[in-house]
Design brief:
Layout: H1 8-14, H2 16-27, E1 28-29, E2 34-35, H3 44-48, E3 52-57, H4 60-76, E4 80-84, H5 85-90, E5 99-105, H6 111-122, E6 126-131, H7 137-141, E7 144-147, H8 160-180, H9 185-195, H10 197-205, H11 208-218
Parallel strand pairs: 3-4, 3-5, 5-6, 6-7
Antiparallel strand pairs: 1-2
Helix pairs in contact: 2-8, 2-10, 4-8
Length: 225
């Protein structure tokens, strides 16, 4: 239901602060200022052994993988790369030992994402799924699965699932950093900033009247730098 909103996209844009607050609350221990993933509780050795990460996605999830890759590499200190899932499945891949393949898929049912998961597992990679649907085929196929908990998203392009997927990758980056290094002042500062990001996003959304004025000014602009 749109709940008196003009469109599902408008409704889902406004849901972003609540979605991120819930996601961040689930994975940040504010007392210890540390990232926690209970989903990895029985897989600590596999996580510690990760030496390289490949992020895969389709559509909007690919864009989350693309941006997430840069943040993941910088924050985790691990070598990372990103690729369209369909490109990954279309070639003869070489997977190094200790590689984790993180596959982002909102539905968990995208054909190319599933084919990539099967292929990566066949090559011996640790497959981690980031999805928005419990019980999806990708969730069942992956070695480890993380659910972003964004609720149903009807609109294309995606909004709340994009930001939730990206935030999950950032939290993963900090989690991997914890496993490789002791907590640093920088890590704690980043976690402090993340803890307040849902409030800041809410403030931006509340500026919609000012944003609308700017949008009307540039709506017919064909090119922008």
């Amino acid at each position: 239901m749109k709940n008196n909103n003009s469109s599902f996209m408008y409704k889902e844009i406004k849901e972003q602060p609540a979605v991120l607050k819930k996601l961040i609350g689930k994975h940040i221990d504010k007392k210890k200022m540390a990232v926690v993933f209970k989903e990895f509780a029985h897989h600590q050795d596999e996580i510690r052994k990760i030496g390289r990460i490949t992020l895969l996605g389709c559509g909007t999830s690919y864009h989350a993988a693309m941006l997430g890759n840069y943040l993941l590499e910088e924050l985790s200190g691990l070598p990372c790369e990103f690729e369209l899932a369909e490109e990954f499945t279309a070639r003869k891949i070489v997977v190094e030992k200790k590689t984790a393949v993180i596959i982002l898929s909102q539905s968990g049912e995208t054909a190319d994402a599933l084919t990539a998961a099967y292929k990566a597992k066949g090559k011996g990679a640790l497959v981690i799924a980031i999805t928005n649907k419990h019980g999806s085929t990708l969730e069942k196929t992956a070695d480890l699965a993380l659910n972003i908990g964004a609720g149903e998203e009807k609109s294309v392009a995606a909004t709340k699932t994009f930001t939730a997927e990206l935030m999950t990758v950032v939290l993963l980056a900090l989690f991997f950093r914890q496993k490789r290094k002791s907590q640093s002042i920088r890590t704690k500062k980043i976690l402090s900033e993340i803890s307040g990001i849902s409030v800041k996003i809410g403030r931006v959304i509340n500026m919609e009247k000012k944003i609308a004025v700017i949008a009307k000014e540039y709506v017919n602009t064909r090119q922008m730098i």
